[in-house]
Amino acid sequence: MYIPENEKILTEVISAYDFPKTLLGAVRYGSGHINDTYCLVCQPQEGKAIRFILQGLSVAAFPRQEELMENFIGVTSHLRKKIEAAGGDVMRETLNIVPTRDGKPYYMDSTGRVWRLTHYVEGTVCLQKATPDLFEASARAFGRFQWLLADYPAETLHETIINFHNTEDRFAKFLTALEADKLGRAKDVAAEIKFAMDRKADCSVAMNALREGKLPLRVTHNDTKLNNVLIDEESQEGVCIIDLDTTMPGLSIYDFGDSIRFGANHSAEDEKDLSKVNFDIELYKRYARGFLEGAKGGLTPAELEYLPWGAKLMTLECGIRFLTDYLDGDNYFHIHYPEQNLDRCRTQFKLVADMEAQWDEMHEIVREIAK
Questions:
Q1: DSSP helix/strand/coil, 206
Q2: Contacts of 117 (CB under 8 A, 6+ apart)
Q3: CA angle, 197 as apex, 195 and 200 as ends, to 5°?
Q4: End-to-end CA distance of the chain
């Protein structure tokens, strides 16, 4: 059996599982930067090879690994029940865990790291760039994710990353970094600081709506990019939502908004020429249409009303996080040149400004689609 060099821990992990017939090897897989992911290939005596995905969870990103796996198991079990009840294919429409030899849903290695093995979803691709059609297809998939999990008790899930989308907390951390001004950078980014300060009240909009009971607590994915949807090779539709490690309690508008932040523009995240950074209202419209189609009328009137806020807040929050890290000395986000976090901040704030200029139209689009 082939095992990559310097990955001998895999021998220990692999030995914890029973595989059908001959295990040919394990190779690095995918383009993720957090977990260690491998594709394992087994060859029966007859028929096609059988593939599995093995992932070692990042201890740095997810220190509460057992709580994360409780979420993973609970959500995927619920999805299987709902998919089966709807007449779907449970082996393609959600991730399916392969138990260890002793029947456990994951394996903890000798270093204390958690590993999980899932069936490979054949006939699908994971794409990094979206055409408008694929963007809308991913929206349907994430909307359906909301629909399938609408009756899951979100409050029972663990927060795998505390305050991940708490925009008030993100703003408070920005103020702390600004006050400390470790590197004396604040004087050179007055415009960006003012942009954030002028929108302090916005940072409380979603949290206030949640506290007041206007918006329901939902199961949210929290990383709704195209590459977290497996696309069927033939139909080009989203089949299965993957990367469930950040699935936790949240607001549906967060999942909607993060997709818009990422996908409804055509520029690089660190584009220096802000004239190239533009919020694409047509892509917003297509995503809103797909998301609501997938959700099948499952969102409340208030959630529909706040969908544009989700887009604005996720973009504003991301810009504030980049600005905070720039002021703090670039300790969180990896950079390749000194001003990269500042450039990232500026692109996000430009998108926010574009959204504000089309604010009424953003609301009208949702209202028209939801009729």
A1: helix
A2: 17, 40, 52, 53, 54, 97, 98, 100, 107
A3: 115
A4: 57
Q: Which H/E stretch holds residue 305?
A: helix 301-328
Give the tens place of pLDDT for each residue, 220-240: 999 999 999 999 999 999 999
* C-beta separation of 221 from 252 below 8 A: no
Q: What is the pLDDT of residues 41-90, one digit of tens each?
A: 998 877 888 999 999 999 988 999 999 999 999 999 999 999 999 999 99
Q: Provide the angle, in degrees to the nearest 10, between the axes of the packed helices 359-370 and 301-328.
A: 140
User: CB within 8 A of 326, min separation 6: which ones?
Assistant: 185, 189, 339, 341, 342, 345
State the burial class of residue 302 (Cβ atoms within 10 Å of its Cβ: 0-12, 13-18, 19+).
middle
**Which residue shows structure tokens 């208030």?**
302
Contact 219, 152 (CB under 8 A): yes
